[in-house]
Amino acid sequence: MTPHMFPTVVLLVFMNVRLPAKGCPLPCACFASITDCRNENLTSVPQGIGLQTETLFLTANQLTTIPPRAFWNLTSLTFLDLSNNKVIPDNDTLDYVRNLLSLDFSENDIQTIPTDIFQPTPKLVWLNLAKNQLKSLPNDVIRNLHNLTYLDLSDNFIELHNNTFEGLYSLDTLILSGNRLSSLPSVAFHTISQLQILELSNNKLKYLPNNLFDKKDSLTDLILSNNTLTGSIFPALRGLSSLKYLYLSNNRISSLPPFPLESFPLLHKVTLSHNSLSVLPDGLLKGLNQLSVLELSDNSIAQLPKELFQNSSSLEYLHMDRNMFSEMPMLAGLQNVVELTLCCSKIQHWPSEVTLSQLEYLETLDLSSNLIVNFDMNIVRNNTKLTNVLLTNNPICVNMNLSVAMPLKCIN
């Protein structure tokens, strides 16, 4: 399939357009090198699949077994989707598909992976085993998948060991969310030298071993949301010099050490929402010259350090909703912020030293659900790009004349 055909083919497949093609089994839909047999209540792999098939969708059927010779003549097959079935795989399930690059085995209630199932597929680069019933992943099963770059093991019951990922020399994306993990082996990821994206959200992690990320200077995305982590995890993160995205929302972080993020100069986004923070250290943003998104919503913050944003000229999106502010925090240093949200707090006072004139790129200011009674239009008059000042559910909305108060709005 030529590259310029791919968008058209995908569109036709997902629109379920049925077009004639040589070697297309009923009741499937086929186009060029794609055979789409999704949602047909199939109990067996249909016979007569075209030899030209490169992409085969068998998604959302009633398949329970795959006969050893089901794909014996599909030498061009590179993408196989068996997701959302009831397949129990055998060692010979993938026989004959030696050119397979991508395999989706998610949502099949698989409890164990046969030891030799991936022996015929050494070229595999993308593997999805999410939403099964896996309790372990014996190293021998994936040891020889040296070309694998993407592995999704989310929503299983997998317990990790030190050598679980041994041999995955090319792996750059590993998804482990929703596995009920309460701890991690200290060298669980040491053999994955190319790892860039690690997803560990929706587990039960309370701490991280201090040497967990040793020699992981390739990691760019670390997702730790929805765990029970505290501020004690930050020593374990040191050394992640290439980190760009750090997600720590929905944890139990009540305090942060001094300069907690200074080891990550390339950070673009940090989420600390839905924690128990009441005080932020003066040096929270020290050295983060590329930070563009900061999430601090749903904490108990009543006041910010006066110079917190002094060197945050790259910050574009700042969300501090549902905190305990009684007055507007200092905004000096946020000259490039585009969206600033402070809804659902207790703000009623606007100190004279807090101005918006230096926020020349500000487009949205959300102050809804506070206690604001008066609003000085001079605060927003000089900001030509400011089109939304949301004041819904504030006392000021009772008598505000909207015809002359734009861009102030009492309706979201």
SSE pattern, N- to C-terminal: HEEEEEEHEEEEHEEEEEEHEHE
Total strands: 18
CATH class assignment of one domain: Alpha Beta
Individual helix count: 5
Classified in CATH, the superfamily of one domain is: Ribonuclease Inhibitor
Question: Which residues sit in consecutive blocks of at least 5 with pLDDT less than 50?
Answer: 1-20
> How would you characterize the largest beta sheet?
18 strands, mixed
Helix content: under 10%
Termini Cα gap: 47 Å
CATH topology (fold) name of one domain: Leucine-rich repeat, LRR (right-handed beta-alpha superhelix)
Portion in strands: 5-15%
Task: State the CATH architecture of one domain.
Answer: Alpha-Beta Horseshoe
What general outline do the C-alpha atoms trace? elongated
Please give the radius of gyration in angstroms. 27 Å
Q: What do the pLDDT scores average to? A: 91
**Structural class, from secondary structure content?**
mainly beta
